[in-house]
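hey so i finally got around to running both of the ones u sent me last week. sorry it took forever, my laptop kept dying halfway thru and i had to restart like 3 times lol. anyway pasting them below in the order u listed, first the sequence line then the structure token line for each. didnt double check formatting much so if smth looks off just lmk and ill redo it

first one:
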Amino acid sequence: MCESDNKSENNSTAHISVFEQRAYIKIQTIHGKTVPEIHAELNEVCGTDTVDRSTVQRWHQRFRDGRISIDNNPRSGRPSTVTQDNTNAAILATLLDED
């Protein structure tokens, strides 16, 4: 899922999702790379879309501690039931009722 931005092949930046960056952090952690090395490599490829260094540090530590999954942890509480479609429908209904 890379979308190159018309720069030269050697100096291009690409859109890499946070999830994909997390997978890269995991692989490089397994290879023994340090946080500054991983962050610099991500920054070289992702540019301004690079996750913060603190995020690299946090996931690097989790993988060093034995975490296997790159998925987010489940959140407590009731799942959100509000969607963009629900919100748009409610706004539209309200506007139509005002006439």
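and the second one:
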Amino acid sequence: MTHSHGSWSENFKKSTGFHGEVNVNKRKVLISQERLKILMNGKLQQCSSLQALSDNIPSTKMRNNPLISLMQQCIWDSIATGSVPQDWRIANVVPIFKKGSKSEPGNYRPVSLTSIVGKIFEGFLRDVILDYLNENNCLTPYQHGFMRNRSCQTNLISFYEEVSYRLDHVSTQTSTPEASSGGGGFCPRPDISFLQSIPGILIMVELVLGLIVWALIADTKYYYVAAFGWVLFVAIFFWALTLVLFLLFFLQLHKRISSVPWPLTVFICHAAAFVLYITAFITCAASVKLEDPRGMDYNKRAAASFFACLVMIAYGGSAFFSFGDWRGTNSNSASGQA
């Protein structure tokens, strides 16, 4: 069987509908002849005589160097055009006898024989994709399917080890003297998931921005204007209250005080902070005057008004989430851990 490159190129363009010159960036898809020989030998050792006949090419002739070069160009052209030839997608279904009477159709198992060239092309795509994912750390260590040196057995072994470790860890904790005595030695443990939740992020924003409002107002001559004294009081009071709530939920201390209705308590605190920060923002913004005769306090008070508005919005969001948790409609709020 002899095929020239020109005849294959014409058939390729006719079957794929591609017209024009093929331009492949060989630096992006490295398909060397050495790699092609290795992959071809592996595939040809697995193929049967029927499978070789599905391509109309004897498997012994596919090992020749001219065909390897032609196959290399075929793969480059297919990648460049984004099309797969129709011959690579056709499968021949062959019945394989299992057992029993050969006259019974149910005793045969259908086997789909696809093109060997198509399988080699799929092997290249798989290798390139896996190399990219491994080089860029796109796969988690828990991925076992379609991975080299991994299988269902390794997945089951890792799962068994993880379950055994957690069971041993739990049994060790429950058998300690502190746990068996009823809780005399409670040790606070930070809850990292709380920091990653929306209510936890809002509380951290309230702490940072509230501290900025506090510092800006405290650095001015606030005692000359009663309105700024009120703003300073609101900023200090709710910053301290928010810090207490943050420590309670981050260290999971609220679980030790089960008698307190935490969803309702958190909602009341955030709602009160939202309402009072509205008054603080309006008061601070209304008291800022450009023709202030007492120096450079204008910029600081204007910035304090801006950050007070941001804190007000943050407390409004916290009040919304805590209200949803109190009513039982938001399971992702901060006090949902109580």
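quick thing i noticed on the 2nd:
The beta strands are 92-97, 108-113.
anyway thats it, ttyl
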